[in-house]
Amino acid sequence: MTSQAMRPHGAVGRVFGLLMSLINAPAFAFAERELAPLAGDAILEVGFGTGRLVRRLAAKARFVGGVDPSPLMLETAQAANAAAVATGQVELRLGEAGALPWPDQTFDKACALHSFQFWPDPAAGLAEVARVLKPDGLLLMMLRAHADGRAGVADLPNALSRSGDELGATLALLTSLGWRDVVAGESLGRTAILTARRQRVRSGGGVEVRQR
After folding, report:
1. What pTM was estimated for this model as a whole?
2. What is the pLDDT of residues 122-147, one digit of tens each?
3. How far apart are CA 187 and CA 57, in angstroms?
């Protein structure tokens, strides 16, 4: 089941993707409110799945980009956003957080909903997200609860997700990488909500890196 959750594939993957979209409907609505897309915004989603959140964001934002490691989800999400893909307002790519195919400072905001557990190198992924975010850009993350001993946890690629304290370890990693305003906010059911902002640019040039 971990392999289907990470990279849905085949007939089972289609059903799994649809089921996850239905289950995650409250998360999509929350993320849209939290990201508060504006007409001039460019927004990144890491792990877009069936593309339901992409469609909601693209209804308000100037540009939405996303990566997902599943060819099936890429096909599904592109079909769900066909008109916006055709005009270039939405750009979806096969890929992962650790190698984002956009230039520095492309995006105003970024999000990763229930996908962080599948990042094999969380530090590299967060560094890449910071690279493509503009200074002071917002990152929203949603982390699923991982109960001790739950089936599949030992198979997760992200060592932080296997640690027994994914939330605390992720907050510490964000801080160590120089993200600022790192906050664990309200929970959504059994999902933890994290927000952080990319470093600001100093008035005289250069990047302000603040440790909390």
Report:
1. 0.87
2. 999 999 999 999 999 999 999 987 65
3. 21
